[in-house]
Design a protein that fits this description.
elongated, 54% helix, mainly alpha, 10 helices, 4 strands, two-stranded antiparallel sheet
Length: 195
């Protein structure tokens, strides 16, 4: 999008559409609301969001191909099963390679290197697809807790705090033994305020 945008003059309609309405390219086609047309000063007539998307895709055929590929990949990710995903995955990978879009080099290498893992994500267990998202969320919460706590000296307290933050119903300790880390020292006397 940016590469195409800079081909046009900053006062042009194409530049305006690619600069200010780019988020429509990131949305799913079905999620873009079919709102009532509003007058757009730059374009010069009444227009709604699906029509703006259509104008954006008509700017460059390469942009349209990239957008359609993105939509096809998201459809594949939602609709296919482990048994049928492999063939469609190869088709999408070959389509992307044939487009020869420089900005998609990282996506091509990603799809090439992680094919097995991506296809394994289509396996369902208890009516849910396999994902490391939940464990990544827990790891993130632990990292934030460690960062904001300014270091716990007592591991059991740290563990209890983590368990409580992750699951409010968790027990405070796994064992009945409580290890005290109290340091023996001289008792403090009465507090005397200097006047």
């Amino acid at each position: 999008r940016i590469h195409i945008m800079y081909k046009y003059d900053k006062d042009s309609v194409e530049y305006y559409l690619l600069k200010h309405w780019y988020y429509l390219l990131m949305m799913r086609k079905g999620d873009i609301e079919d709102n009532l047309p509003k007058f757009n000063k730059k374009i010069g007539y009444m227009i709604n969001k699906p029509q703006i998307l259509s104008l954006i895709l008509d700017i460059d055929p390469l942009l349209k191909k990239a957008y359609l590929w993105k939509e096809n990949y998201l459809d594949f990710n939602e609709d296919y099963t482990f048994d049928t995903a492999s063939i469609r995955y190869d088709e999408l990978y070959n389509e992307l390679k044939q487009m020869r879009i420089n900005e998609f080099k990282d996506v091509i290498s990603f799809l090439e290197n992680w094919k097995t893992e991506i296809l394994n994500s289509f396996i369902y267990i208890d009516e849910r697809r396999i994902s490391n998202g939940p464990i990544e969320s827990i790891n993130g919460r632990i990292k934030v807790l460690m960062k904001t706590s300014l270091k716990y000296k007592n591991f059991e307290r740290l563990r209890n705090r983590i368990m409580f933050c992750i699951n409010k119903n968790s027990l405070p300790l796994m064992t009945n033994e409580k290890n005290s880390h109290k340091v023996e020292g001289k008792k403090r006397g009465k507090y005397k305020k200097n006047k």
